[in-house]
Fold this protein.
Amino acid sequence: MITPSEYGNRWRKSSHSGGQGACVEIAVPGAGAVAVRDSKDPRGPQLRFSTEAWNAFATAAAAGAFGGLPG
């Protein structure tokens, strides 16, 4: 799902979120950056990462480096 933001970013929520409302969304605000926010608080704070840092995190997460999801 992609939603527009008041900041002009296009936010994307994972298709695996299951509609539970406890999700993060990501956007690409500019070259070399990735923004992350809480989907329940779209006007709240955003975390910004370099694309290199985000790619390293996503690769590690996909490999299971952070354990499983809480059950």
